Each structure stands twice: as C-alpha cells, then as structure tokens.
Amino acid sequence: MARFNFSVILILSFSLYLFLYPSTVSAELKRNYYADICPDVESIVRKTVEKKFKETFVTVPATLRLFFHDCFVEGCDASVIVQSTGSNKAEKDHPDNLSLAGDGFDTVIRAKQAIDEVSSCKNKVSCADILAMATRDVVALSGGPSYAVELGRLDGLSSTESSVDGKLPQPTFNLRQLNSMFAANGLDQSDMIALSAAHTVGFAHCAKFSDRIYNYSRKNPVDPTINNTYVPELKQLCPQDVDPRIAINMDPNTPNTFDNVYFKNLQQHKGLFTSDQVLYTDTRSRPTVNAWASDSDSFNKAFIAAMTKMGRVGVKSGNNGNIRHDCSVLN
Ligand code: HEM
Ligand SMILES: *[C@@H]1O[C@H](CO)[C@@H](O)[C@H](O)[C@H]1NC(C)=O
Ligand SMILES: *[C@@H]1O[C@H](CO)[C@@H](O)[C@H](O)[C@H]1NC(C)=O
Ligand SMILES: CC(=O)N[C@H]1CO[C@H](CO)[C@@H](O)[C@@H]1O
Fold it and tell me: Nearest to residue 115, comparing CAs of 51, 36, 34, 38?
C-alpha cells in the first residue's frame, strides 16, 4: 500500500512537472550564439542603432518598450513586430501598443537589412535576437549599463491582437497587480522595480495619467501621492482639453538619460503613473526604491539581471519558431 501510494505520487508529480515545464523553462540561450554563424552581428547591430540614435533620441524609449511588449506577449519572439494582414490583426494593433513608436520597429528592420547584406549572415539571425541586441545598445547609448546579451531565440510563428489581452501591466496598477503580472513571466518584485526604471526615458500621453491630476476620486480630484509642485506643471503640460497626441517626458529631470533619477523622482513624489509612484508609496517596495535611488551601481546590476531574465521569457526553439526573412511578415 505504501509503495503504491509512493508511485502514485511519483506519477502525479512527474505529470505536474511536465505540465509546468514548458512555461517555466525556456530554450538555452548563450552569449556567443552567432560566433560561427555571423561573428560580426553585434557590431553590425550597434552601428545601425548608433546611426538611428543620432537621427532621433526616440530610438531609445521606442526600442526598449518594444522589447518589453514583445517579451510579455507570447515571449521574446519578435511577434510584436509583425504587421497585420487583411485576415489577421497582429499584436501591434492592440490598443495597449499605442505609442509603440515607429522608431523601435524601424531600428530592428534597419539592423536586419544591414545583417542580411553580409551573405553568410543572410536570414541566419532572428528578429527576436536583433531586438534584444538593439535594446542593449539603446540602454548603453543613453547612459545606462552595458551588458553581454544572451542570444539564440527563434522568431514566433504567430501574432494576434487578442493574445495581448491581459498580458501588459496598466498604469493604474497597484503593487499586488504589478507583482502578479511580472511573476507570471518569472520576474520577482526586485526585477519588476528595476525594469520599471525604464521610465527614466521616454514619453507618455496625457490620457495615461490625467485621472491622477483631474479626476482621482469623488472626494479628492488630485492624487495626494503626487508632489504639490509637480501637479501644476503636469496640468500646464496636459490641460484637460489637450490634443490626445501630446506626450510628455516621464522623467521630468533627466528625460534623455538612462539613470537612477527615476527612483529619486519617486522619493520626491514625481512618479508619473500610479504604477510608478506606488513603488515608493507601498512600504513593501519602498526600501528597494530608496536603495537604488542612492546607489546607481546596485541599480545597474539589478537592471542587467532583470533584463537578462526578461529576455528568456517564452523563448522559441525547434519547431516552435523560425528565422523570419522580413521581421514584419511571418514566413
Ligand atoms: C511596471 C509596469 C509598467 C507599466 C504599467 C507601463 C506603462 C507604460 C505606459 C502607460 C506608457 C506610456 C505609453 C503612452 O502614453 O503611449 C509607458 C511608456 C514606456 N514604457 Fe512602460 N510600463 C511598465 C513597465 C515597463 C517596462 C518593464 C519597460 C521596459 C523595460 C517599459 C518601458 C517603457 C518605455 C521606454 C516607455 C516610453 C515609450 C516611448 O517614449 O515611446 N515600461 N509605459
Ligand atoms: C472621472 O472618473 C469617473 C470614474 O472613474 C468616470 O466615470 C468619469 O467619466 C471621469 N470623468 C472625467 C471628466 O474624466
Ligand atoms: C516636492 O518637490 C520638491 C522639488 O521640486 C522637493 O523639494 C520636495 O521635497 C518634494 N515634496 C515631497 C513631499 O516629496
Ligand atoms: C505602432 C502601431 O502599430 N500602433 C497601432 C496600435 O494600435 C492602434 C489601435 O489600437 C493602432 O491605431 C496603431 O496604429
């Protein structure tokens, strides 16, 4: 009887293991994946990104956010880059993608072109890896840490608008909601806080936070966790009848530098979204915010670790992926 129970437990736990395995473990990535296939790939991508960065700073936030949205929806498989076709609305047409600025897409398309000009590299480097490398490069170009990026992802075989539903965090989220959505991607609270600091660069449309300054609650029209001196500045940049296309800097102090000022802003109650400010307001995450506000080296280390972990989410291999000939079109 005892032995019978034991084997039942073994079988049950093995089935549970098989059930959990695909979502928690991704294909092996490695740093020198293209060493024999396309040895110069990283410098080719970097040159493209540098050129694009000189043309427009938006390259930085656009590429960084694109990578995040790619990884959180169906894994880091460049499915976010696919264009909709007549019959299929792709991920990028979901309302949550709004302001996935064209410059992020363009960066990947241009790098792919440059790579494919080298005959030995042609159609050997995945769009998903190009986006991962370009993201590393934009972070470094804007003053953030540089890191060795893991490679070996394949491109996904599908991209649908409906797959985005419920996969991306909303700017109104509280700590519990943020933690649960990041945990679903294998990322813990520290990773979540480190990655949120991506809001040290880039822009937000007024509608994403205007409730915080005009329509917070019945009793209080203004969110009391916003700095008193910041409220009038925000109201001036985003009047109630503002053109919906207007977007403002998320980091009011150093908007064009990837730095830990994001955390200093939170300490001064200048986080733009509820989901930013809550990291300081909630005492369960505040110690991490304080630590990284005063120590940029430890923030940089945490950011690299979290980006590397995010880059492993839902990676495709074998029959689950391929290498796209055109990043915006499924093969
Ligand atoms: C923690 C939960 C997060 C929420 C709720 C959130 C939400 C948002 C929202 C609402 C915007 C403004 C979009 C617009 O107005 O068009 C934005 C912009 C941005 N987000 Fe996040 N985000 C989160 C995490 C992240 C992460 C993890 C990254 C990257 C690692 C990231 C990178 C960016 C960047 C770079 C921008 C600026 C985009 C641009 O200027 O084109 N965000 N985010
Ligand atoms: C204010 O918020 C409430 C509840 O969220 C909403 O129903 C209402 O339309 C908002 N009003 C304005 C002016 O945005
Ligand atoms: C509000 O911001 C100012 C600087 O603009 C800062 O001196 C002050 O401490 C902040 N107030 C709070 C409550 O964080
Ligand atoms: C860059 C991009 O493709 N943006 C699209 C995001 O989704 C909206 C609709 O929800 C489209 O209008 C945008 O063109």
Answer: 38
Q: Which residue in 321, 210, 198 sits closest to 262, CA to CA?
A: 198
pLDDT tens, position by position, 43-72: 999 999 999 999 999 999 999 999 999 999
**Residues near ligand 1 (Cβ within 6 A):** 61-62, 64-65, 68, 98-99, 101, 169-171, 173, 178, 195-196, 198-199, 201-205, 208, 247, 273, 275
In this prediction, the residues of the chain whose per-residue pLDDT falls under 70 are 1-27, 96-99
Nearest CA to 46 out of 119, 123, 118, 135 is that of 135
pLDDT digits (tens, 9 = 90+) for 6-19: 454 444 454 444 44
Give the separation between CA 44 and CA 112, rounded to whole angstroms.
9
Task: Kindly report the pTM of this predicted structure.
Answer: 0.90
Map out the domains of the chain with their CATH numbers: 41-167+311-320 (1.10.520.10), 175-309 (1.10.420.10)
Looking from the CA of 90 toward its CB, the CA atoms found within 13 Å total: 20
Alpha-carbon span 29 to 227, nearest angstrom:
43
What CA–CA distance (Å, rounded) separates 142 from 257?
Answer: 5
Q: Which atom number of ligand 1 is nearest to the Cα of residue 170?
A: 5
